[in-house]
Amino acid sequence: MIQNHEIDYKIIGAEMQYVEIELDPNETAMAEAGSFMMMEDGIMMETVFGDGSTQQNTGIFGKLMNAGKRMLVGQSLFMTAFTNVGAGKKKVSFAAPYPGKIIPLNLAQLGGRAICQKDAFLCAAKGVSIGIEFQKKLGTGLFGGEGFIMEKLEGDGMCFVHAGGHVTEKQLQPGELIKIDTGCIVGFTGAVQYDIEYVGGIRNAVFGGDGVFFATLRGPGTVWIQTLPISRLASRILAYSHSQKEEGSILGGLGNMIDGDNW
Fold this sequence. Notes:
- The protein is of the alpha+beta class and 263 residues long.
- It is 21% helix and 41% strand.
């Protein structure tokens, strides 16, 4: 039976959020490298191999296998453990990497398992296992947008994932089906059936602008949907940067002179 550390938390902020975790003495929170924001005196910070869960106590080979799985979902081989070694309660905070929302997931209330997009994981109570979830159908793997491999969170404790823009939580009834842009999926509970469907129609495929495939999610279960996937944000910034260079090569100098930027 998996036993995770029980942690209290508070999510602070609106567009750029961070999660503040309160640790009792000897409690530990695990976090991805680069997510740390601040902590109070009395918390010990230690880099560990893998996710620190009890599922990894399988010898060096098992630890290497689990660490390799983490690399497949875009995570590093190492995580950072933050342990309260003091006498009273201590707080440690972790920040979101880009504008969006932090989603708290209580795995004990979600059937012990949640499936998320790659790079979604932010931090968790010690004992939560972060692994991979292979999409079994070939079409899902080849055309799923988020790839053949997704992130799997298992345990009975709290974990926190991050998504871009606004996040909507939708409860699916048994047999209920929704269709979503593949990049807009943040995650879903283990009982949800995930597949890929062809949009159909040559005009939709060529001129639709929203991709040739979308995801189908069938209940029962919970689905989290984001309005601004980081891949979409990055492509817009890249396109804007490219257009700015083109404008600058033709009118940029003259425009700057007219605007007074070169004076």
